[in-house]
Design brief:
By secondary structure, the chain is of the alpha/beta class. Helices cover 30% and strands 22% of the residues. It binds iron/sulfur cluster (2 copies). One iron/sulfur cluster binds next to helix 8.
Length: 215
C-alpha cells in the first residue's frame, strides 16, 4: 500500500503559525496519517488538548475519511457551523490533503505536519521510501528500480566502489541498489541500458514549480 509519509512539525513552529489565531478547527485524515499516527483521531484529540491548554478555543474537530479526495467537500459541509466559527484550520494531513481542503474553504490553513515522501509499508509502522518525486524519472532505464531512493548515495550512475557481494557499503543489511539494477537488467536482457551514462542532475531546474503541462 502506498502512503504519504508525514511527521509532526515542532510544537514551537505550530505555536508560531497559530500565534494570530484564537479560534481553531482541527482536521485529521483517516488514511495515511492515521496509519503513520500523525493525524488520526488520537493525534487530533491530543492536539485539541494541547492547544486548549494554551488558551486556544477549539471550535471542533473532524477526521475526514480521505483528505485528498474531492468528496472531502461533503464531509466539511457537515461541520460548516463549527468551521465558520474558527478563524484558522489546523490541518493534520499530508500537503496534498491540506491543499485539497484549502481549495474548498475560505479560511486560513495551517499544516501541522511535514510531508516527507511517498512510502510503502514494509512492516507494521515501518515505511520505506519509494519515490521522492524528483521530477526526472529514470526508472525506465533501471528496470523499474529507483536508484534515487534505493541507493544510499542516491547515485544515478552506479554502482559505487563500495558494493560488496551484493550488499551496500553504507549499510550491510541492505542490498546494493545498483547490484539489484544490474541483476534485473541482466534478467531482462537489457544490460545495454546500464552502459548509458546519466547526465549530472540539475536539481535547480527540476521540477517546474507548481506546473504540469500535458500536451
Ligand atoms: S527516479 Fe526515483 S525518485 Fe525520481 S521520480 Fe523516478 S521513482 Fe521517483
Ligand atoms: S554500495 Fe550500492 S547502494 Fe550502496 S552506495 Fe554504493 S551503489 Fe549505492
Amino acid at each position: 500500500m502506498i502512503r504519504s509519509i508525514t511527521q509532526p512539525k515542532a510544537e514551537k513552529e505550530i505555536d508560531l503559525l497559530l500565534s494570530g489565531s484564537g479560534r481553531i478547527f482541527i482536521i485529521g485524515c483517516g488514511t495515511c496519517v492515521t496509519l503513520t499516527r500523525t493525524g488520526g483521531e488520537p493525534e487530533v484529540r491530543a492536539m485539541q488538548e494541547q492547544l486548549s491548554g494554551k488558551g486556544k478555543l477549539i471550535t471542533g474537530h473532524l477526521v475526514v475519511p480521505v483528505a485528498c479526495d474531492n468528496l472531502t467537500a461533503d464531509a466539511l459541509d457537515e461541520y460548516g457551523h463549527q468551521i465558520d466559527q474558527a478563524d484558522t484550520l489546523l490541518i493534520m494531513t499530508c500537503a496534498f490533503g491540506v491543499q485539497t481542503i484549502a481549495r474548498q474553504l475560505k479560511k486560513m490553513v495551517v499544516p501541522a505536519l511535514d510531508t516527507l515522501f511517498i512510502g510503502k509499508e514494509t512492516a507494521a509502522g515501518e515505511f520505506s521510501e519509494i519515490c521522492t518525486q524528483c521530477g526526472t524519472c529514470i526508472i525506465g532505464e533501471t528496470g523499474g528500480i529507483c536508484p534515487v531512493t534505493t541507493c544510499h548515495k542516491g547515485l544515478v550512475n552506479g554502482p559505487c566502489g563500495g558494493t560488496d557481494s551484493g550488499k551496500c557499503e553504507i549499510d550491510r543489511r541492505k542490498d546494493c541498489a545498483w547490484t539489484m539494477i544490474y541483476n534485473r537488467l541482466m534478467d531482462l536482457g537489457r544490460l545495454d541500458s546500464m552502459r548509458r551514462l546519466q547526465p549530472p542532475r540539475n536539481h535547480l531546474g527540476e521540477p517546474t514549480p507548481g506546473k504540469m503541462i500535458l500536451s
